[in-house]
Design a protein that fits this description.
The complex is a heterodimer of chains A (108) and B (414).
Chain A (H helix, E strand, L loop, with lengths): L1 E9 L6 H4 L2 H9 L3 E6 L7 E6 L2 E6 L7 E10 L3 H9 L8 E6 L4
Antiparallel strand pairs in A: 1-5, 1-6, 2-5, 3-4
Chain B lengths: L1 H27 L2 H22 L5 H19 L4 H9 L17 H9 L6 H13 L3 H7 L4 H18 L11 H21 L6 H4 L1 H15 L4 H14 L2 H4 L19 H16 L5 H13 L9 H14 L3 H15 L1 H13 L8 H12 L3 H14 L3 H15 L3
Helix pairs in contact in B: 1-2, 1-3, 1-5, 2-3, 3-4, 5-6, 6-8, 6-9, 7-8, 9-11, 9-12, 11-12, 12-14, 12-15, 14-15, 15-16, 16-17, 17-18, 18-19, 19-20, 20-21
Chain lengths: 108, 414
């Protein structure tokens, strides 16, 4: 099964470069072939929100959600089951100071 | 013969439902199909057993019948070729005892670990465990948890969808995950038991029956995991609590406090079994919260009179429990035990510091305990105020009436 790991962190929380660096994790999951793709994302201040309401395109800056945690990166992984995906997600450094949301891909 | 066969079917339903469903889920990978085919098999049994006699191994008969039914249904949908091959490869049903043969996990163990997976909500875990392992109907589970049947039906459908969509594996977790996941299973069973135990005499029979179901599941789990002393500890705990059931309420349905219960009405066989199980579990030398709680329950259950209760031992056990699984409720219970062992003033000091820490806001047993201790210290005015405080916090009728009785006692002049 394919899972998207959404790496969510509070951008205002100070984390040392070393603590936040997913380098070792990326090396591990790429090495084992679990990770299909992934990237860090630019911060929310660079985000654009696109919506269509009543046929009209509404473009604005930033997400509207008032949640503190924002998506800071994503990783697409392939695992046999949820337990494996949880194990992979739990080793991502952001799990230690943010949240990793594990979302199965919609596959028929 | 007819009545006898029907009783055999009812008995087999209690004994075999979970096993039939668990096996069918493994081989078909389809939870709904598994339940439907299990239902069909029991319906067939009701037709066949009165006519042909009860089979020598009812469980094997039911599993085979359910499996054949699944083959029929899958054959009709031609796309299911792979599952059909798996079904054909399914070995003949095994003997009817609880444990899986030589290292091969019993399918029910797979089922219970999957139902209690932490990625499911607590509500979903409980509902799914009851539906698939005990065979309670959706309507019965809804009644037991006091929710409308469509709500419960939706909850079950969503839980099964989630297992499929999120890829929750149908298996016993590997060794490194086992301790944590076993704790999750035990907590679901204990929650189930407590739902039934907190139901009063007036409550629905199905609701009260949750205790029986929880004990049955814990018994099964203990058989499946003989190396897990906490499973046996939980079973012992349930048996020891359940043994006092008949004495817990009086004829009018009023709650009778432990020290006033007629100990002659306690179930001696249940207590003996609980104590024996606990002793065997403790011998494994790996104590845990359930074993300690069972030890506390055993102290109460084995005291011939309330006055004979070994309170210093109970206070020490609560201290142990607070170290293993710290919680303000445990601290409150420790305060009660200390009050019995060393006097109400010592207990009151613990309650006061617990209240000062801001723990358990709105929890009626906190002021109720303070009220009891103040009453025993002869501080009646403060005691009455605390009883009123406690009454304002509880909605349960039996509890309120008990508090009112105490309030009347301390308010009586002279």
């Amino acid at each position: 099964m394919k899972y998207m790991l959404l790496i969510c962190v509070d951008e205002s929380v100070e984390v040392s470069e070393e603590e936040a660096s997913p380098e070792a994790w990326v090396k591990e999951v790429d090495g084992s072939g679990v990770r299909l793709s992934g990237s860090r994302l630019r911060p929310v201040r660079d985000a654009t929100t696109v919506r269509v309401r009543d046929g009209e395109l509404v473009v604005s800056d930033g997400p509207f959600a008032e949640t503190k945690e924002q998506i800071a990166g994503y990783d697409l992984i392939e695992c046999d089951n949820l337990d494996e995906a949880i194990a992979v997600a739990s080793r991502h450094p952001a799990a230690g100071f943010g949240t990793v949301e594990v979302r199965p891909l919609w596959e028929e | 013969m007819g009545a006898e066969a029907e009783a055999a079917v009812a008995d087999a339903f209690r004994q075999e439902w979970g096993r039939v469903v668990a096996t069918l889920i493994r081989v078909t990978g389809d939870w709904d199909l598994a339940e439907e085919c299990a239902q069909d098999a029991f319906a067939r049994a009701l037709e066949c057993w009165p006519r042909d006699g009860v089979p020598r191994r009812p469980g094997a008969w039911l599993t085979t019948t359910a499996r054949n039914r699944a083959v029929d249904r899958l054959r009709r949908s031609a796309t299911e070729a792979t599952r059909l091959r798996e079904l054909a490869a399914l070995p003949g049903p095994e003997a009817g005892d609880c444990g899986g043969p030589g290292g091969v996990p019993d399918d029910r163990l797979r089922l219970i670990f999957t139902c209690c997976h932490p990625a499911l909500s607590a509500e979903a875990r409980v509902a799914l465990t009851l539906r698939t392992l005990t065979g309670l109907t959706t309507a019965e589970i809804a009644r037991a948890f006091l929710v409308p049947e469509p709500t419960m039906a939706k909850r079950l459908v969503r839980a099964k969808q989630r297992i499929r969509n999120a890829g929750i594996p149908y298996r016993v977790p590997p060794a490194e995950l086992l301790p944590q996941r076993t704790a999750a299973v035990l907590s679901v069973l204990y929650l189930l038991f407590n739902e039934g135990y907190s139901a009063t005499a007036g409550a629905d029979l199905v609701r009260r029956g949750l205790c029986t179901e929880a004990i049955r599941l814990a018994r099964c789990l203990t058989g499946l995991m003989p190396e897990e002393p906490e499973a046996a500890g939980l079973l012992a705990l349930m048996l020891l609590h359940d043994a006092r059931r008949a004495a817990r309420t009086d004829d009018a349905g009023e709650l009778v406090p432990l020290e006033e219960q007629d100990r002659g009405r306690w179930d001696a066989a249940g207590i003996a079994e609980g104590v024996a199980l606990l002793d065997a579990a403790l011998h494994q030398g790996r104590p845990g919260p359930y074993q300690v709680q069972a030890a506390i329950a055993a102290c109460h259950a084995t005291a011939a009179r309330a006055a004979d209760t070994d309170w210093p031992q109970i206070a020490a056990l609560y201290g142990r429990l607070a170290a293993l699984a710290p919680s303000p409720v445990v601290e409150l219970n420790r305060a009660v035990a200390v009050a019995m062992a060393d006097g109400p003033a010592a207990g009151l000091a613990l309650v006061t510091s617990l209240e000062a820490s801001g723990a358990l806001p709105g929890y009626h047993l906190l002021p109720a305990t303070r009220a009891d201790l103040l009453r025993r210290l002869g501080r009646t005015a403060e005691s009455a105020a605390a009883y009123r405080e406690a009454m304002a916090l509880t909605a349960a009728d039996a509890e309120r009436r008990h508090l009112q009785r105490r309030l009347d006692e301390v308010s009586r002049p002279g």
